[in-house]
């Protein structure tokens, strides 16, 4: 190979590795991790570790600390970006599929395919409902408000989300559940906590006090007393009523999963309700006290 052709080859190869705006080496995503039958909180972390080549295509290798089990994807992903689109490698089909299209306009759509738990072929249609911009650390990034439509042999299902340029879907990188016949009762993503890379810097969504927050609910369960505490409705939307065996007067304190006091109220027999209309959706715990003595706790889900 002569010197001119070698130089051109090196330039093209270098550009294919370093012209990507999505998933630069060292980039990290933190997603909140919840569990179907527990109040425990953990986090899912994606990290871009290196450049590599799959099927002759220059791409980035991404590893995961945890993963959404029902998403049926591996602990390692391979992705690349080109012309405002992001592609991911699918081991089932041995090819790359379109994950995001950042320059899409309202009514534009793209399709990806996957197999469910029975290895049956299904598809996911992503349709852009509207577009906007968001300012993050001085950069104006495109934001796509989308609807996902899952097409399988049973029935079509839809869900909505938001995709941000350079970051991806704010709920989870691969925001779909491929299972057709089974209800997922394992872990799930509760949304993006943080994203960080060398160019954009650290972006925190405020979903948690820290990117790597871990919360063990078991300590709360251990201090529950034998006193009967009824909380209803649970889950609740606008209010919750509390009744306690043997007592009509007591104090209610509502805490979030970080242990922060959200609100407190002294109740008596005539008013045992706690208003929740101003409280964000999520999991909380209610502490019941009487005469400065903790009587017990109850979990509460705010819808």
UniProtKB/TrEMBL annotation:
Pfam families listed in its UniProt record: Por_Secre_tail (PF18962)
Keyword Signal: yes
Domain Secretion system C-terminal sorting: 231-300
Keyword terms of this UniProt record: Signal
Chain coiled-coil ranges: none
Signal peptide: 1-19
Name recorded for this polypeptide: T9SS type A sorting domain-containing protein
């Amino acid at each position: 190979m002569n010197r001119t052709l070698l130089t051109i080859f090196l330039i093209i190869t270098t550009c294919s590795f370093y012209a990507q705006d999505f998933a630069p080496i060292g980039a990290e995503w933190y997603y909140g991790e919840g569990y179907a039958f527990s109040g425990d909180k953990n986090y899912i972390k994606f990290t871009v570790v290196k450049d590599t080549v799959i099927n002759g295509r220059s791409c980035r290798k991404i590893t995961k600390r945890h993963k959404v089990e029902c998403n049926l994807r591996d602990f390692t992903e391979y992705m690349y970006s080109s012309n405002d689109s992001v592609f991911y490698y699918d081991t089932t089909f041995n090819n790359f599929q379109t994950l995001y299209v950042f320059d899409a306009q309202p009514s534009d759509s793209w399709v990806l395919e996957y197999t469910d738990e029975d290895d049956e072929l299904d598809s996911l249609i992503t349709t852009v409902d509207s577009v906007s911009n968001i300012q993050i650390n001085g950069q104006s990034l495109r934001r796509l408000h989308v609807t996902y439509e899952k097409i399988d042999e049973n029935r079509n299902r839809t869900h909505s989300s938001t995709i941000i340029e350079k970051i991806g879907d704010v709920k989870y990188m691969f925001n779909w559940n491929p299972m057709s016949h089974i209800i997922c009762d394992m872990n799930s993503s509760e949304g993006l906590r943080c994203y960080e890379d060398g160019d954009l810097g650290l972006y925190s969504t405020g979903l948690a006090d820290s990117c790597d927050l871990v919360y063990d609910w078991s300590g709360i369960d251990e201090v529950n007393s034998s006193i009967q505490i009824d909380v209803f409705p649970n889950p609740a939307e606008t209010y919750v009523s509390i009744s306690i065996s043997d007592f009509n007067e007591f104090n209610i304190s509502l805490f979030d999963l970080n242990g922060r006091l959200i609100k407190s109220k002294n109740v008596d027999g005539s008013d045992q309700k706690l208003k929740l209309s101003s409280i964000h959706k999520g999991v909380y715990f209610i502490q019941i006290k009487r005469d400065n003595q903790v009587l017990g706790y109850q979990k509460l889900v705010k819808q």
